[in-house]
Amino acid sequence: MDIIVENLTKKFGTQRAVDNVSFIVKTGEVLGFLGPNGAGKTTTMRAITTFLTPNEGTIKIGNLSIYDHPDEIKKHIGYLPENNPLYQDMPVIDYLKFTAELYGIEKSKIKSKILEMVNLCGLEGEKHKKIGELSKGYQQRVGLAQALIHDPEVLIFDEPTAGLDPNQIVEIRKLIKKIGKEKTVILSSHILAEVEATCDRIMIINKGKIVADGTSEELRKHAQGKEILKITIEDGDVNEIFKALQKIDSIEVVDFIDKNLNSFEIQSKPEMSSKKAIFKMCVEKAWTLTELTPFETKLEDIFRELTMN
Amino acid sequence: MKQIWIISKRELQSFFNSLMAYIMLVAFLGFSGFFTWLFGSDVFFVKQASLQSFFGIAYWTLFFFIPALTMRLFAEENRSGTIELLVTKPVNDWQLVLGKFLSTLLLIIIALVLTLPYYITVANLGPVDHGAVWSGYLGLILMSAAYISIGIFTSSISNNQIVGYMLALFIGIFFQIIFGLLAGNLSGLFGSILDYLSLSTHFESISRGVIDTKDLIYFLSIIFIGLVLTEGNLAKKRI
Ligand SMILES: Nc1ncnc2c1ncn2[C@@H]1O[C@H](COP(=O)(O)OP(=O)(O)O)[C@@H](O)[C@H]1O
Ligand SMILES: [Mg+2]
């Protein structure tokens, strides 16, 4: 089932928490919903899960609109809300049973379904404890188990690894990857590495608006319009080298990195490369080129640039 | 209907898991038993094989106990955020409200069933007006349902249980006694309106053994209005 969001706007008072957002998530896709705190991730997800009613726009899950078939839609969604709110005083097994019953799973199948979830989410040793007695990591697994028990086609996970320790994070990510293969998944996070590790596609949202959308490679390429090089040239006068570099046609900007070490940052003109020209210049002037490294644009930089202003 | 029962079952479980149910049952039986059999205008003092003194005591005990049972129902879901998981499951707001309402009503009915030994004992002491006893129980159930409905509504207003409890008592005390007192001091149309609004008037007429549709409509109206307002509060949270 595809998730189709069209012109979604959600206001709180005068604030547009989500502002005219449109996107489609296809079956089998894992979409990483990335943005700083307060960007509007939770609000968007709450609209998709029918918890919040949009002010404008439409949302469809498959062919079902959230306005016309909320109860039908809910059956197809597995939802892990932010902060994983569960009944603390309820034993794990009882809670899973309650969830299974609400989803209308046949009585005869409930037991085996619960067992399947307990195994899948690694809750074997904890299943008779009260949820409130479990560690945060295990509570998160209970949250996942309740979201998966009815084998939904759509999964919405809001910051599924927030507050977990590194080992727990790795395990939960593994689990999400495993179950996300045949489903339509949206996963939110404010951590870039997490989204890169688990998702096929990244959508960056800031102040309620989508500012980037694509695979991590696409996002990188997009930001990497210009070649940036770090070079070090020895056996020459710094100022002379600086001037010579500026004379190269393909170079747009020359910047000192470290005057004493004769290090420069070179930015080429769009679609041009200056590597050859720099090498040739050094040979002509009998300078020694001791370093020439292209700068990798990190996704972090893209993220920061897109969400800082 | 199935969804309503699933919700009710979980609430009942939660009442019993948290000991709230046991505390309520023991306290209710203790209070009502003490005053029915041992103290004040008890059965022996009145020298009549009737449960009137029990109904009088239960009327007040339930008034204070019911808000303590209902205060948690929505306030706690709102506070802890579990309401989000609940309403994104395939249940609608009405099923949720009715499920919670039913769970508390069932608990009260359990408490009342446990007082049936009083009835049996009294019946052994002398001739009893059986009709009056059963209609007395009906009166208690209707009155409980009305206060449960009010309590659920006040619980859905905020995410603070104490606020829910106090507000339920505050609204309840008008129906319980204030309207009746005012009606006694006022005559004319206003007086009779207040008299109709007074819950004690209707409770007394039912527990005397007269079941009038006027009284039934009164209780059903309070229940209905309370539940509608609760549903409204739930729906409001999504806008
Ligand atoms: N129930 C609410 N009432 C008022 N403002 C809200 C509410 N929920 C969210 N907001 C505001 O909407 C903005 C987006 O919030 P949210 O969707 O939670 O962001 P994110 O999940 O990306 O951190 C924030 O500025 C937040 O304060
Ligand atoms: Mg959030």
CATH superfamily of the largest domain in chain A: P-loop containing nucleotide triphosphate hydrolases
Could you name the CATH class of the largest domain in chain A? Alpha Beta
What's the total number of strands of chain A? 14
CATH topology of the largest domain in chain A: Rossmann fold
Mind telling me which CATH architecture of the largest domain in chain A this is? 3-Layer(aba) Sandwich
What is the percentage of strand-forming residues of chain A? 25-35%
Radius of gyration of chain B, CA atoms, in whole angstroms: 19 Å
Summarize this structure as a short list of keywords or feature phrases:
heterodimer, A: 309 residues, alpha/beta, Rossmann fold, Alpha-Beta Plaits, 2 domains, 6-stranded mixed sheet, 4-stranded antiparallel sheet, 14 strands, 37% helix, elongated, B: 239 residues, mainly alpha, 12 helices, 84% helix, globular, binds adenosine-5'-diphosphate, binds magnesium ion
How are the SSEs ordered, and which strands pair?
The complex is a heterodimer of chains A (309) and B (239).
Chain A: E1 3-12, E2 15-25, E3 30-34, H1 41-48, E4 56-61, E5 64-65, H2 70-76, E6 77-80, H3 92-102, H4 107-120, H5 136-148, E7 154-158, H6 166-179, E8 184-189, H7 192-198, E9 201-206, E10 209-214, H8 216-223, E11 228-234, H9 238-247, E12 251-258, E13 263-268, H10 275-285, E14 288-294, H11 299-308
Chain B: H1 2-17, H2 20-38, H3 43-46, H4 52-80, H5 82-87, H6 93-113, H7 116-125, H8 130-157, H9 161-185, H10 188-197, H11 199-207, H12 213-236
Magnesium ion (MG) is lined by residues 41-42, 82, 158 of chain A.
Can you walk me through this structure?
Chain A has helices at 41-48, 70-76, 92-102, 107-120, 136-148, 166-179, 192-198, 216-223, 238-247, 275-285, 299-308, and strands at residues 3-12, 15-25, 30-34, 56-61, 64-65, 77-80, 154-158, 184-189, 201-206, 209-214, 228-234, 251-258, 263-268, 288-294. Chain A is an alpha/beta fold and 309 residues long. Chain A has two domains: 3-214, Rossmann fold; 226-297, 2-Layer Sandwich (Alpha-Beta Plaits), CATH 3.30.70.100. Chain A has a six-stranded mixed β-sheet, sandwiched between helices. In chain A, strands 2-1-4-5 form a four-stranded antiparallel β-sheet, covered by helices on one side. In chain A, a hairpin with a 4-residue loop joins strand 12 (251-258) and strand 13 (263-268). The longest helix of chain A has 14 residues, at 107-120. Chain B contains twelve helices and no strands. Chain B has helices spanning 2-17, 20-38, 43-46, 52-80, 82-87, 93-113, 116-125, 130-157, 161-185, 188-197, 199-207, 213-236. The longest helix of chain B has 29 residues, at 52-80. Chain B is globular. The chains are: A alpha/beta (309), B mainly alpha (239). Chain A binds chain B through residues 46, 49-53, 70-71, 74-75, 77, 79, 81, 83, 85-90, 94, 98-99, 101-104, 146, and chain B through 2-3, 6, 10, 13-14, 17-18, 80-85, 87-92, 238-239. The complex binds adenosine-5'-diphosphate and magnesium ion (MG). Residues 12, 17, 35, 37-43 of chain A line the site of adenosine-5'-diphosphate.
